[in-house]
Design brief:
By secondary structure, the protein is mostly helical. Helix content is 70%, strand content 0%.
């Protein structure tokens, strides 16, 4: 893993991050237009769009945390998690 998190991050994380930033930018532009024209419906829609962008960022953070944990397990820095109770260790038993 490199020193910069962006170089070491997965493609899914990068896609989620850029998508979320784009959605938030669209929401901000909609909010500015709605505020300047005093269009309340556009303002409320912009808030929803910005909220969707924030959810995308949260998803990206979850993916980044998962990737970082997988890297730490692969390096032997932490132990792998035990399977949840009631779950089989192998998935071949279907």
């Amino acid at each position: 893993m490199t020193n910069t998190p962006w170089e070491a991050s997965s493609g899914l994380y990068k896609k989620l991050t850029f998508s979320a930033m784009g959605v938030e930018a669209i929401g901000i532009v909609m909010a500015v237009i709605g505020a300047s024209t005093q269009n309340m419906a556009l303002l409320y829609t912009a808030m929803v769009v910005i909220g969707i962008g924030l959810l995308g960022h949260l998803g990206g953070m979850a993916v980044r945390a998962r990737d970082a944990r997988a890297w730490r397990v692969a390096q032997g820095l932490v132990k792998p998690r035990a399977p949840k109770r009631g779950k089989s260790a192998s998935k071949d038993t279907l």
